[in-house]
Amino acid sequence: MEKAEGIPLSKIWDGIDVMQKSKIVENIVLFEKSLALNPFSSYGSLYYTDGDATEGFAESGFTIGPTNNRKYFDDGRRSLTLDRGPWFSIEDYIEANATRERESITSLGSSPRLQGINGPDLYQPSQTAKLRALDLYLSISKYLLPKNKVTHKGVLWHPDLHTDNIFVDPQDPTKITCLIDWQAVHIAPLFLQARRPAFLDFDGPIPERLKFPSLPENFGDMQPEEKLNAKKLRDEQALYILYEIGLLRQCRAAGSALHGRDTLVTRLTGLAGSVFTDGEPVVLGYLIQVVDRWGEIVGKDVTGDPVIPCPITFTDAERTKQRIDQQKWEKGVELMDDVVQSLGVYTGWDGFVSHDDYEAKKQQLIASRDAFLQSMAGSDEERRAKWRKAWPFPVS
Fold it and tell me: Which stretches make up the Aminoglycoside phosphotransferase domain (predicted)?
């Protein structure tokens, strides 16, 4: 395996100025532009033509074969009989994703990657609700595609550009020398691939779209430390917007796909591909919105009626249950976020730590769990037992 040239961006990111950071953002945009402007005519993964994959078609010395998307292999799914592609239409790709989730739910039971804590009085994952959400989605999925068909094209995209995966020249940190962690990169529709790089994530309010932020009106009255924090937030927000504007200028299709991530159809299509893991109350909520906006989605005739009748419906009782379930689910997600922050780990952490850190992290886990149980149940032993069962990180 070739050694990555340069140093991880994480080693110098906090020490370089905003102009240097801006140049790095611009270089990432140019790189992603090259990916977006070189689409493929099918979806799957890229193989050398003399490799094991023989399906697909030759593409400049490569062939497109079955996907290596982790969702088709992780958490026991490697053993399942699934359609792993390649796929030659957007409809087949979307259907395969949702069908994969359905097969995972019926064959494997619960996922080990829940997003929330499912304690007493909170949402309890339901196989029935998961399957209902997927079946309803599958019945209308062909209508739930972005209207801009350019964003349907299959592209490669790096899904995890955080500062440890970006290597730069230590003499000129604006020069990107290498991007690592490509092992699960696959060809998928642009509207599902385009996303802001993780290294641009920050804590604070998201700025208005395409509008550069400014300092607070009361900046002059702030204390020195408050001024530093305000400038830091302003710079982080500016980089966030710089990426958005840069991508739109360099590649309108990719910019459109990025903006479209906030639309109902893209949110629903993306989340329907993760129901095995979690989120069925949200999917059902999106489906209710689809029903309510059906005419807007499929178009209306001269009388104002949808050109195609909506195939799915929800009763008032089902709508009420969905709202309650989502509120409970969101509370569980908030609790998980609090626990993750208390542990100083990332969302989705699977418990892995280095050998050197094992004992310290184990003691931290125990202390965090005990504080959590005290907060949620106090001295009520019955409730403590229920919350202990819901604790997401077992400690031996």
Answer: 144-190
